[in-house]
Amino acid sequence: xxxxxxxxxxxxxxxxxxxxxxxxxxxxxxxxxxxxxxxxxxxxxxxxxxxxxxxxxxxxxxxxxxxxxxxxxxxxxxxxxxxxxxxxxxxxxxxxxxxxxxxxxxxxxxxxxxxxxxxxxxxxxxxxxxxxxxxxxxxxxxxx
Length: 144
Prior knowledge:
- Helix content is 42%, strand content 20%.
- The chain is built from five helices and seven strands; from the N terminus they run H-H-H-H-E-E-E-E-E-E-E-H.
- The protein has helices at 3-12, 19-31, 37-47, 53-65, 130-142, and strands at 69-74, 77-82, 89-93, 99-102, 111-112, 116-117, 124-127.
- The strands form three sheets. A three-stranded mixed sheet has the order 4-3-7, with no helix packed on it.
- A hairpin with a 3-residue loop joins strand 5 (111-112) and strand 6 (116-117).
């Protein structure tokens, strides 16, 4: 998703995108993996030292409400990944925390008489990406 489109969505939500917030946003968009707010803050501070952790939390909160960030609970900690606003699912690597978007989807608009009508759904798959699987295989082959 283009930065200008995101800026427009933020503006429509009456969220002012300051220079600091824009640095946080572009860092988050380009990270390619899940990050905790503290990890994102650490990444941003390398480029823009004056950004506060509160700024990171506020931006993530707004992006989540707009459907542009998705939270994941892993080992008791909440991670976030940047998302487009199109419906999709996620494959999350438990080793490197990279997130791969999955656009194939089973339609879940069926009526389930015993529970109700499904309006929307979310599916996240957790496992090990091919790169981490190869690393683990290589490490195991070196073990005595």
